[in-house]
Design brief:
Strand order of the largest sheet: 3-2-1-6-5-4
Largest sheet: 6 strands, antiparallel
Distance between the termini: 58 Å
Structural class: alpha+beta
Shape: elongated
Strand content: 15-25%
Order of helices and strands: HHEEEHEEEHHHH
């Protein structure tokens, strides 16, 4: 009971910090810190599916024996394939995920993280050899308890990551033009005022380049607005690829 109360306290504290995180990097640092306390005798990793959906990346790891394969495909993990927890207690006879590399752990657990109908990644845990003083029944009891704790932890993480993705999407919609991907007029007006004040304070020049697409109405009239949208998207992508990191393309 004392251990369960301690775990609940840690989960609540971690949940508060996750909800206060502004970026995935901050959230991953929180997860790494609390995973060490919740699973002191296990190593693990927080793995997220890339936006392209064809790769999984371990964005943070912890423990003495973290997984060696930091990047793998979704098909390499049985938990991602099946959409449910995959637990292997004996690597010699169990069905190991392909991303579990040498040296093999005594047991490993992959918990898929799902929120709002989307699979975000997995929480991966791996154990060393159990204590020699434990009976087989005691080991199974401990493993079952840790599996339930891992599922609860994955639910907390998934919810926080889904909220971060939503915030990022809303922020992007608020400051970027949906067609070209460039910053919109609202962002330009706010940023320009700040940059003007900064340039005045530091006594440095500030350059502004404005340009117009010649005869664009004629292009739309000739080839249609759908073709015009393609041109605008390509120009937006060109500008984003060719401006300097400190420049702002709007």
């Amino acid at each position: 009971l004392e251990q369960r109360n301690n775990e609940n306290t840690l989960l609540n504290e971690m949940g508060d910090l996750l909800q206060s995180s502004h970026t995935v990097e901050e959230a991953s640092a929180v997860v790494s810190q609390f995973a060490r306390q919740l699973f002191p005798h296990q190593s693990g990793a927080l793995c997220l599916i890339a936006p392209s959906r064809n790769l999984v990346d371990a964005i943070t790891t912890w423990g003495e024996f973290p997984p060696q394969d930091r990047i793998f495909t979704p098909d390499d993990c049985w938990a991602l394939r099946r959409g449910q927890t995959h637990w292997v207690t004996d690597p010699g006879s169990g069905l190991l995920c392909r991303h579990v590399s040498q040296p093999l752990p005594a047991s490993c657990l992959c918990v898929p993280m799902m929120a709002q109908g989307e699979t975000l990644g997995i929480l991966h845990l791996r154990s060393g050899q159990p204590a020699a003083s434990q009976t087989e029944q005691e080991q199974e009891t401990v493993m079952a308890s840790q599996q339930q704790l891992a599922v609860t932890l994955a639910e907390h993480i998934a919810l926080a990551l889904a909220n971060l993705k939503l915030q990022e999407s809303l922020h992007r919609q608020a400051i970027r033009d949906p067609l070209t991907g460039l910053f919109n007029r609202r962002y330009l007006e706010e940023t320009l005022e700040r940059e003007l004040r900064r340039a005045e304070r530091r006594q440095i020049p500030l350059g502004i380049i404005m340009f117009d697409l010649d005869h664009f109405k004629k292009f739309n009239d000739t080839f249609g607005h759908a073709a015009g949208d393609v041109v605008l998207r390509e120009i937006g992508a060109f500008l984003q690829d060719h401006v300097r990191a400190e420049d702002i393309a709007c």
